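Support case: user asked for a sample of complex input and structure output to validate their parser. Sending the pair below.
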Amino acid sequence: MVLSTIVESITDFVVQEPKISGLIIGLIAAAIIASVINVGAMGVVWLERKVLGDMTNRFGPCRVGTRWGILQLVADAIKLFTKEDSIPRGADRPIYVWAPIVACITTMLVAAALPWGALNIGGVVYPLVAVNMDISAFFVEAALSLMAIGAFMAGWASNNKYSMLGAFRGMARMVSYEVPMGVCVISVAIMAHSLNIVEIVEAQSIWYIIAQPLGFVIFMIALVTDLGRIPFDQSEAEEEIIAGYVTEYGGIRWGLLYFQEYIIMLLGSVLLVHLFLGGWNGPVIPVISILSPMIWFLMKMILVLVFLIWVRGSLVRFRIDQVTDLGWKWLLPLSMVNLVWAVAVGVYFA
Amino acid sequence: MTTANDVLDALQSAFPGAIQEFRVESDNRLWATVDPNKIVEICKFLRDEEDFDHYSGAAGVDKIDEDLFEVTEILASHGAHPVVALLKVKTPRDTPSVKSLTGLFWNADWYEREIWEMFGINFEDHPGLYPLLLVDDLVGSWPWRKDFKGYPDYNTNERVLEKINPDGYAEYKISPTEAEIEAGTVPETRPEYPTFREREIMELETESEMILHMGPQHAIVPGPFMLDLRVDGERVKKAYLDVGYIHKGIEKILENRTYIQGIPITDRMCYLASLSNNEVFCGAAERIMGIEVPERAQYIRVILEELSRIQSHLLGTGEFLSLLGGATFSPFQWMILDREEIISCIESVTGARINHSFVRQGGVRNDLPDGFAEMTRSALKTVVDKTNEYKELLLSDNIYRKRMEGIGILSPEEARRFGLSGPPLRASDTPYDMRREDPILVYPDLDFNVISRKEGDSKARVEVRLDEIIESCHIVEQCLDQIPGGPIREKVSKKIKPAPGEAYYRVEDPRGEMGIFLVSDGSDKPVKVKVRGPVYAYMQALPPLLEGAYVADVVAIAGSMDACTSEVDR
């Protein structure tokens, strides 16, 4: 009885005040998204430590929080929060302070437009997405390239030679890889006849990794570059320029910049799953059919994450000129070839 | 084959009267005291006519009884003949001055700078006599002179004057007390010269250039040293190197220890090569004493030194790979694991993992334990298998090859001119190995190849190291098969007092030519110990090698040298 009254009054409120209720729903969605990606990113950090540990013959975290070290991240966060907050004397203070925040905001922008799996209720698949935009693929791509701004701000404001070199390297890398990456997204959109990620997923009766393998490879390389992970971590190459653009950061400011990378890693693998691996598509699992799309989605995502970690453990770093060479001279022409292929195949099957 | 006598005859016929004294110690050691005015001509003759193209170093000795300084130039040849010529030049103590050899040998630069800052011996025509190892505050005290009274106590905090300069950074100045000035521990006059920082800033040309510091604390450096790069964007225009951040004064300490007490000190020169360092110190004393080490002890020394070479190369290569690919690049940790097996083998004999202090004058400290042969054989088998795997891995890794091939190329002529030795020299098509050139212990009885490569780039240097691991395994296996029974130490009195004399003894360290020039005056402590380390030469060769490279390649070049700063500074 009580429950139905509450539901009724909420429905009335939504009908009477659509603007206010929209705002409230938006805030709730934002809170859910923020907690999901943060907890998810913590999971990614833990996964990376464990997998890398195994690859390099170590245990990884194994003391804090059972023998699996699950609470290690919490301990790290407490340490970072309680550290002294120091700003270098020569730093450009406002930019220095805002850089980590800008970096985090851009990741949230990406997260808002990405579907976080789906639920199968009575045979109908409902995607879990905060903002279902018509141009979400384009929006995600744009927001991803904003990420370099935060890193550049950090490098510029630190008043440090290593930071500066790291920031320049990051910018050069971003410019040479966003273009092929964007072309790949366009190829996918052409095949799916839509820029909406939900519709792109629904259009994948054949996964696009099979329909355009070249596009997948290019997108994968560009994604690793965008994430700034080995072999493309020139902007923070520890052995050359100490820590690149984060050299002068400490405490929770550093923590935010560090964590932001893992959030982007999570978002990047979600994007890859949606664009090329068929998102939550997969055979319906009996008994738990409601969760079936979710399970497929998570499985694919973890697979991509482990692949990314594997790459880090087994490759050495490129030089920055080799990176831009690869981007402009190989990936861009090849992505054009892929675009032509996508148009041809798309038209043939249309 | 040319012997020391042939060289002496040629010298005497070319420069009649210039050789004041001479001593032919053996077929491959020639000692001569030469006329100070003719040293440059004699060295030029030796270099051009007698193939002495390897300037191995120089040592200064303070002969306070004779009121003289002696500078000994050590010359050798890259494979043409095994003779080492040690030419002594004498100079009075009140106005010490010797002619510089920098015009003939490029790498004489650092050796002469070191002698200048330590003894105050001036080198005529030297292009830049700046201190190398000492702090600017201490230059002028000439610490290696025998009448050196000690430094002022700079550790007292109350005497530190802190001043904030206009850029907002603190500058520290430490002033000596009046008592110290009176006692003579503070020099009255100091030489004037531009400091390291001033010298590099003077060379900045355009607005877009900047000095990028790599060191003294930086991820690439294996120990503290200052590598400053003048960069324009990502390009290195010029590199400047400053060493001496961990100068421990080991040579001076050795002068104040008996021969036995000195052994643990030599461990500390380089923690990866402590067995070779023991060997070279004890071997030099054995040369003066004229004792022959029992055969079993010789085999034990060879086994342990080769094992030590294997573990050093494994760590060196692993560390280098971690420089290229971050600390998470997996092969590094796997090499550490392989090294662990080798270290356990060494530990079972010496009881220590890093600082062994194992070799003794006249033999070794203790015998091989039971089961050592089996344990070592199984460890070597693992290492050989794994090393072949690493070679395959690195050969098939395209990114690795893209980073390493054609980077930091040293032509054979350049590598010889820089005075390099060990893997970097052998990677430049020069199979120069002390185990072949200057055979010691039982090396002549053993069958092994000297590994060399033609390319001379960073990749070749790493490949030479990996191949040497396999070759060393082969040597150790032979030794385990051939080792005879018998005593492990010649009877030497507990208080070692070698007869007055001098010796130059060199071994093949994991990193190259390691030599000790030892002078004894018949007492239980050496008069002078001069260490000629291989890494010293690597470091000296680094700045010209880095010119024109990218910042990222600095890591690939400097890392492939497998340097050990501790040994440079000593």
